[in-house]
Specification:
Elements (H helix, E strand, L loop, with lengths): L1 H18 L16 E8 L5 E7 L5 E9 L11 E9 L3 E11 L9 E9 L5 E10 L3
Antiparallel strand pairs: 1-4, 2-5, 3-4, 5-6, 6-7
Length: about 140
């Protein structure tokens, strides 16, 4: 009986991860310079993994986060959605934002994925992405 339960739970986890599609895909959409930068990252909090972030400098940008359910979330337990980070400029300067996707119970020390954004905020508080990089399956 224990083997059957373990097998069923394993299959459910495989389906949950498969249902999310390409978790490494970055669906962020931005222009050269925008008033508000939106970064959308595939997420599935039912796995225990969540997106967190760190900024290299305080006071240059403000980041707010929302989770948007996928269209199937109401019908499928464990379905994917998106963590949406909205970034606005507070004062002129440069800042690096590191987004980490990993197990929240370990404080994101074993990240499955890391995305780094180098941002510049100009005197009009418009934000431009200077560079972007990503690393998957970080241990």
């Amino acid at each position: 009986m224990k083997k059957l339960i373990t097998l069923i739970l394993s299959l459910i986890m495989i389906l949950v991860f498969t249902a999310c599609g390409d978790m490494g895909a970055d669906d962020s959409d931005y222009n050269d310079s925008v008033e508000t930068l939106t970064v959308e990252l595939d997420a599935n909090p039912t796995t225990g993994y969540t997106w967190g972030y760190n900024k290299s400098s305080e006071g240059i940008i403000k980041i707010t986060e929302n989770y948007v359910k996928g269209r199937d979330d109401e019908e499928v337990v464990g379905a994917c959605g998106k963590s949406v980070f909205t970034i606005t400029g507070i004062k002129e300067g440069d800042v690096t934002v590191i987004f980490s996707y990993g197990p929240q119970w370990e404080g994101w020390t074993k990240d499955a994925e890391v995305k780094t954004y180098e941002l510049h905020v100009d005197s009009d508080l418009a934000i431009s992405v200077v560079s972007k990089s990503e690393v998957e399956n970080v241990d």
